[in-house]
Amino acid sequence: MQRTEIQINDLSDLDRAAEDFIEKTRGHRLIAFYAPMGAGKTTFTTAVCSRLGVTDTVCSPTFTIVNEYVTKDGQTIYHFDFYRITRLAEAVDIGLDDYLYSGNLCLMEWPENIEELLPEETLKVHIRVNRDQSRTIWWEEQQA
């Protein structure tokens, strides 16, 4: 396994980190963010969407479960927040499979609540809050 890490020193470092993340995860369409409450999942997702050309306001879909964004060049991005999901059937009922197998980028917060439904190819990304309040984003992949 190869571990990749990206440091985010503070909010002013967010755009650089998002650009680095996009470059290093190119080719992945299903990205699940694992982190505790307040670690910055939505903040980082917003930065990634902005760097990808989303011009709409990006916000956590806590109550709607999924938000759909379109980039300047017409690509669709789905942003999920599974925090309020208490039964797998709730995710199935919103048509989760249709989203996951659409070929579009899916960025997921609180994926641990639907873990059993995630396809094997889902990239599991972790965000750690460091003692100095910086963040470390990391994931592991099989080496090619």
UniProtKB/TrEMBL annotation:
Q: Which UniProt keywords are present, listed alphabetically?
A: ATP-binding, Cytoplasm, Magnesium, Metal-binding, Nucleotide-binding, tRNA processing
Cellular component terms, GO, for this chain's entry?
cytoplasm
The principal localisation class reads cytoplasm
Which GO terms of type biological process are on file? tRNA threonylcarbamoyladenosine modification
UniProt cross-references to InterPro entries, sorted A to Z: P-loop_NTPase (IPR027417), T6A_TsaE (IPR003442)
Tell me where in or outside the cell this protein is found.
Cytoplasm
Give the Gene Ontology MF terms in alphabetical order: ATP binding; metal ion binding
A Pfam family annotated for this UniProt entry: TsaE
Domain of life of the native organism: Bacteria
Assigned protein family = Belongs to the TsaE family.
> This protein is called what?
tRNA threonylcarbamoyladenosine biosynthesis protein TsaE
